[in-house]
Amino acid sequence: MMTAVRGMRDFLPEDAWRLHRLEQAAREVFSRYGFHEIRTPLLEWSELFTRAVGETTDIVEKEMYTFPDRKGKSLSLRPEGTASVVRAFINHGQGQRLPWRVWYRGPMFRYERPQEGRSRQFHQIGCEEFGAAGPLADAQVIAMAMHFLAGIGLGNRLDLEINTLGCPDCRAPYRERLADKLRAHAAALCDNCQQRLARNPLRVLDCKIPGCRVVAERAPHAREHLCAACAEHFSGLEAYLGALDLAWRYNPLMVRGLDYYTRTVFEITTQELGAQNAVAAGGRYDGLVAAMGGRPTPAVGFAMGMERLMALVGTMAGGIAPPDFFLAAVGVEAQAPGLILAERLRAAGRVVEMSQEGGSMKNVMKQAGRSGAPVALILGPDEVAARQVMVKEMASGAQRSVAWDEMLT
Ligand code: HAM
Known about the structure:
409 residues; alpha+beta; BirA Bifunctional Protein, domain 2; 2 domains; eight-stranded mixed β-sheet; five-stranded mixed β-sheet; 16 strands; 39% helix; binds histidyl-adenosine monophosphate
């Protein structure tokens, strides 16, 4: 039996309905903040991600689905949305009025080890704002994420964690200092972190392995080594979050797995999903547009993992509704008029399911019962001859004849 690819799952109609409900809720909230939807391709030149996400990140080193196209050019399935949106901004957005605010949704692909809450195809809803340099934009984007999450009932089940990573000016000396400190405890670090020491020492800070955590907890924090402008940005953000009364926690060990961040980074986490505890994450990336060849433009954004949100939200009221009517057509002569009647009712906005061809009265009524429709419209040879339909209330069994024309008014 052929199965789905490991780490990729089907969204059966009930799941797709829930995903859609969440996307709809996001659309409504995000539009109140001036964000509009953008759709970018699922496939991009591999180089886009190598350059934007960072060559030494796990995503680029180990997790991309990369393959040559028929001309031998390297393509990758998108592992995240920010790089594509930055490309689209450079390609089309730079002439537009700033700030340029967009949101997106859709599948992302990472070749990670699948486990609860982590899959190889997963869905994100994300948003990116270009052109606002101050901490007000960070505060507003964070507030928007929290607003959406509160609206889907998760308000008090989540924690907001924030850190600052500084800018290239203050990060370079901090990185050196951090690497020196970590090197002094290199023997206590896991193999992976020993490698990171030379290439990406900041990543050691968020390693989950206990030995590394002990070392990380005693390491210097980026916040203590910020330049004046970055320090001012962070205290500005603190003031705005305070003004909004948003509860948050400073997490000096959060560095994020993507290299493009500057200054603010944040994660929204839950204690209910085990190891994969981040439901949303993002931050500022003021250098990325220029690094990708655009005019220097500050930017900030975040993305949420929809499968994790769906797991937290659980069952949702509503779901896929049964049809308004089940059109039970009995006998050959009833099929074409039944088809026409069903089409007309649908054109009038009603949800209609029609019986399978060739069923007896008993059989089509069984189908009607299974459909969950509250009302069956029965069309047998007598009804066709009289241009009528028998309207049967399924719960009470009460029925009455109604003329076709009347049915449609
Ligand atoms: P990220 O932290 O890599 O950031 O992913 C954002 C969210 O996507 C995570 O917090 C998690 O909920 C979900 N996620 C990530 N990987 C998986 C997976 N394998 N399975 C299930 N869910 C997953 C980004 O992608 C950045 N582009 C966010 C951003 C936007 N930063 C600025 N703008």
